[in-house]
Design goal:
This protein is mainly alpha-helical. About 90% of the residues lie in helices and about 0% in strands. The protein is rod-shaped. The relative contact order is 0.07.
Length: about 70
Amino acid sequence: GNPLVSSLSRHKISRTIAAILVFLSFFAFFLLLLFLLVPILEHQLWLLISQIPNVFQWIQQIFLPWLDKH
């Protein structure tokens, strides 16, 4: 079985309740992680999107002429 559930069962908590607590704890942890990461990822995505015109400009002005020479 799950070591966390087994540990909780040793403290007089039924395996069913222990399993539910472990599941809810992991769910809460991933939900918190999601709430923390989504704004950061959204910000990074907008920064990336805002740089697309600069990337196209770099390709046209620097990369393609360099590619023609080599």
